[in-house]
Amino acid sequence: MNGPHLRLHRLFESAIANPSAANEIGIEVEQFARSHHPLACQILAEIALSGSYPRDLRLIAYICLFEITGRSLCNIPRVDLMRIPEDFDMGIINEYLNGSPTNSTFSIS
After folding, report:
1. Tens digits of residue pLDDT in 62-92
2. What is the pTM of this model?
3. How far apart are alpha carbons 91 and 13 in whole angstroms?
4. CA angle, corner 23, sides to 20 and 26, nearest 5?
5. What is the residue-averaged pLDDT of the chain?
6. Quick check: helix, strand or coil at residue 107?
7. By C-alpha distance, which of 75, 22, 73 is closest to 47?
8. Burial 1-29 (b: 16+ CB within 10 A, else e)
9. Domain parsing of the chain, residue ranges
10. 67, 33 contact by CB (below 8 A)
11. Over the Cα atoms of the chain, what is R_g?
């Protein structure tokens, strides 16, 4: 795996140890905005569901997934009250995990 989606994954990994690195995630996601980039969406969906990431990073991944797919955030619960992953729209998550459009085998471990 290489390219901008690899950088996106690395930014999430570095944000675990250095929370201030999370600021760069939004900048990186801007290049994917409304692109429906399948591998970037798959990475974000996996991070959003992964218990190995802190709550805030999982929430960032979920919100970024909406940005990349061009979906409105108006219908999600307030983020400060959101239960993760119980309040996630599993339709958008599963769209990029099970039967991902790329059928990619990328996995976060």
Report:
1. 999 999 998 888 878 888 899 999 999 999 9
2. 0.81
3. 25
4. 155
5. 83
6. coil
7. 22
8. eeeebeebbebbeebeeeeebbeebeebb
9. 4-97
10. yes
11. 13
Q: How far apart are CA 7 and CA 88, in angstroms?
A: 24
Residue 46 CA: distances (Å) to CA of 49, 74, 107: 5, 22, 8
What's the rounded Cα separation, in Å, for the pair 54 and 29?
19
Question: Token digits for 19?
Answer: 């929370």
Give the number of other CB atoms < 10 A from CB of residue 105: 8
Q: Report residue 89 as tokens.
A: 């729209």
Q: Are 5 and 64 in contact (CB under 8 A)?
A: no
- Packing angle between helix 22-30 and helix 4-17, nearest 10 degrees? 160
What is the C-alpha to C-alpha distance for residues 75 and 95, in angstroms, rounded to an integer? Answer: 18
Kindly state the tokens that stand for 1. 């795996």
pLDDT at 99 over 60: no
